[in-house]
Write a structure and sequence with these properties.
By secondary structure, this protein is an alpha/beta fold. The chain has one domain (2-209): TIM Barrel, CATH 3.20.20. It has 11 helices and 8 strands. An 8-stranded parallel β-barrel has the order 1-2-3-4-5-6-7-8, surrounded by 7 helices. Helix 4 links the parallel strand 3 (54-57) and strand 4. Helix 6 (112-121) packs parallel to helix 8 and helix 8 runs parallel beside helix 9.
């Protein structure tokens, strides 16, 4: 499984990169707004840091405008992947971009049918939002399982990015299903290596180590 970091905070990215676990970055307008800087400046800095796919979301809602904006974003760096919302205009724009060999990540996926049609037009990634489904009393991981089954049935190359991840258990569940990628906020990424028994073990080791005579 590949890990993407879901952030536009450059300091969070620098810290996570030290682990060697970050395979890519996903951003969205909300995350960039928190950074308080221009979209292009943030993307340029991320591209300088990360050697992997970097999703940049279009801000337009009309298909023609999405395509123009996507072409401009794609020109920033070869690693840029264009994030397109799952709307009718989004599908039209995504189809046009696929034909130009511009990588596309279809976002705001909430149903197997949405993922099916995205796979059919050949986008590079789909992003099912599992946490938001859990929030409304649906099991988000059921959606991931359905998408993976459909893609296997038809041999689609589209990769599944498990998004809206709320806790480490989501990551485990996604890995069990064989999801290609999980994109994680920094708060979840930082908890992947944690376990209370590890902490207790370290306390014991350090306590015992303090009793060892030093020469």
């Amino acid at each position: 499984m590949k890990f993407f970091l879901d952030t536009a905070n450059v300091e969070e990215i620098r810290k996570a990169l030290r682990t060697g676990l970050v395979d890519g970055i996903t951003t969205n307008p909300s995350l960039v707004a928190k950074a308080g800087r221009s979209y292009r400046d943030v993307l340029n800095e991320i591209c300088d840091l990360v050697n992997g796919p970097i999703s940049a979301e279009v801000l337009s809602v009309d298909a023609a405008d999405m395509v123009v904006e996507a072409e401009n974003l794609a020109g920033i760096h070869p690693n840029i992947v264009i994030k397109i919302p799952m709307t009718q205009d989004g599908l039209i724009a995504a189809n046009a971009l696929v034909r130009q060999n511009i990588p596309v990540n279809m976002t705001l996926i909430f149903s197997p049918l949405q993922a099916l049609i995205c796979g059919k037009i050949g986008v590079d990634y789909v992003s099912p939002f599992i946490g938001r489904l859990d929030d409304i009393a649906h099991t988000g991981m059921d959606l991931v399982a359905d998408i993976l089954t459909i893609y296997e049935n038809y041999g689609f190359d589209t990769e599944v990015i498990v998004a809206s991840v709320r806790h480490p258990v989501h990551v485990v569940e996604a890995a069990r299903l064989g999801a290609h990628i999980a994109t994680l906020p920094a708060a979840v990424f930082d908890r992947l290596a944690l376990h209370p028994l590890t902490d207790l073990g370290m306390e014991k080791f350090l306590s015992d180590a303090a009793k060892i005579p030093r020469e």
